[in-house]
Amino acid sequence: MGEPAAALDLGTNTFRLLIARPRKGTPPWARIRAEQRLVRLGQGLKAGVPLHPEAKARALAALVAFA
To answer: Hey, where are the domains in the chain?
Structure first.
């Protein structure tokens, strides 16, 4: 059919991963893998203040888990 495609949605609270392959019919994509991780990247977020170290650690752990 076709090559799989992946999409990442890196939101403030949740990171999502979707990997799907195109197919004939409805829906036009067959899901291969779908995951989401609560990262709370916006924890303590304020203008001019760097991201909280724990939030960065959760975000990195989510990306590693998606790999």
So the answer is: 5-66
